[in-house]
């Protein structure tokens, strides 16, 4: 009661500037997403990972680039190697049924082994508006070396 949750003027100014450039930012992010997709194709062909699949009749806005690692790839080791090289990749999600709220309020029937297995193999790569080709090449090279 009595609280206002509207953004302050400074935050609104930052948001307005981003909204004015939204089309260009999205276009740049889509180009970065596609560069990852192209750079990672050889690793997918080697069976080390699976790249995102976008159905032909769908669009996306490149809000993230994720990978599904092959079961034999140790995600913790890969994340540690990326971090050691100042690359901020992260795991993607915790399955809802194993989150604190899911454990408290949720119900499942049987094991959710596919969900748990995929969550242990998902990896998100850095993706932001100004990510350069050289930075992406370094990220992919570091991943390749860590998986070798």
Give structural notes.
The protein is 51% helix and 9% strand. The protein has helices at 9-20, 22-45, 75-84, 100-105, 113-121, 133-147, and strands at 49-50, 65-69, 90-91, 122-125. It contains six helices and four strands. The radius of gyration is 19 Å and the shape is globular. α2 packs parallel to α6 (133-147) and α3 packs across α6 (133-147). The mean pLDDT is 92. Strands 1-2-4-3 form a four-stranded antiparallel beta sheet. With 148 residues, the protein is of the alpha+beta class.
Helicity, in percent? Answer: 40-55%
Biggest pleated-sheet summary? 4 strands, antiparallel
Question: Gyration radius, to the nearest Å?
Answer: 19 Å
In percent, how much strand structure appears in the residues?
A: 5-15%
Low-pLDDT runs of 5+ residues are: none
- Number of E strands: 4
Shape: globular
Strand line-up across the major sheet: 1-2-4-3
Question: What order do the SSEs take from the amino end to the carboxyl end, as H and E?
Answer: HHEEHEHHEH
If helices are DSSP runs of H or I spanning 4 or more residues, what is the number of helices?
6
Query: Could you report the average pLDDT, rounded to the nearest whole number?
Result: 92
Going by helix content, strand content and strand pairing, the class is alpha+beta
What is the quaternary state of this protein? single chain
Our measurement of the CA-to-CA distance between the termini, rounded to an integer number of angstroms, reads 58 Å
């Amino acid at each position: 009661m009595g609280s206002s949750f509207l953004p302050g003027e400074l935050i609104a100014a930052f948001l307005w500037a981003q909204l004015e450039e939204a089309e260009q930012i999205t276009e740049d992010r889509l180009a970065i997403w596609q560069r990852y997709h192209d750079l990672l194709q050889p690793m997918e062909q080697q069976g080390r990972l699976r790249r995102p699949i976008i159905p032909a009749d769908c669009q996306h806005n490149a809000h993230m680039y994720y990978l599904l690692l092959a079961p034999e790839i140790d995600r913790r080791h890969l994340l540690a190697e990326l971090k050691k090289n100042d690359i901020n990749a992260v795991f993607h999600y915790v399955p809802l049924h194993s989150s604190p709220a899911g454990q408290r309020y949720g119900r499942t029937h049987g094991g959710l082994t596919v969900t748990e297995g995929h969550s242990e193999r998902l990896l998100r790569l850095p993706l932001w508006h100004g990510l350069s080709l050289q930075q992406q090449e370094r990220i992919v090279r570091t991943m390749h070396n860590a998986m070798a």
